[in-house]
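Can't paste images in this forum, so I'm doing it all in text. The chain is below; anyone willing to post the predicted structure tokens underneath?
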Amino acid sequence: MYDIHCHLIYGEDDGSRSIEESIEMIKIYKSIGYEGSILTSHYDESRYLVTSEKTIEKMNLIKERLNEEKIEFELFPGNEIQINENTIDLIKNNKILRLNNSRYVLCELPFLTRPLYAEEIFYRMQLEGWIPIIAHPERYKYIESDMGLFNNFIKSGCLLQLNLSSLTSKSLAPIAKELLERNMIHFVATDSHQSKWRNPNVKDELDKLKALLGEEKFLQLTTTNPEKVIKDQFISSAYDKVIDLSDKVGKKKKKRWFEFWR
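Text version of the structure:
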């Protein structure tokens, strides 16, 4: 398995606080079967400005420590980008990073207010040959009343990444399962931040995911699609496989889980 969203870079945002904590997080990753991760520190002009230069510098220092301790774990550069009108230029000027310098861009949206500008920015990204991956859609408040917005994003070629921790969150689990049921999720990730708070130990969530989806779909979300990002291979948004959105979010389905993946 590979993670495409985490905050292992230390001392730059609200993620790891030291190189020692980053190593401890990696040990947790390995204990549950992860082989590597893309490092996606925040680039958010209102909070954290973790540049490509800083990301690569810290990533190389972590790699050196891993070599010293003889720990095998692959690291790849990236950013989690709070998108705005400057995003395209920042990427083109190598100020911030696409995921492992691939065509894929991890994008964060506002949590409370529907982003009226997102469609235009995603369209401009795609003109550059990039594919937006929308981080943790289940966490955006407006999805509860406007799931059609994310359906439209998928229709335009965007991909969606679910946080594994949402599957065991009392408040987020219903919408997380709804997104999975409707075939709207292309990746799951840890979005891990520290060794204690929001740590990478998502074993229970992975077990839950596999029980819900079955082995084939589980591997697609945790391994196949993440590897395609790292290798810069194309991933279809599979819009034609999205389940009908006519009924309300959270409405109980008559179908059993496995039937959605047939």
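The longest helix spans residues 52-68. The longest strand covers residues 74-82.
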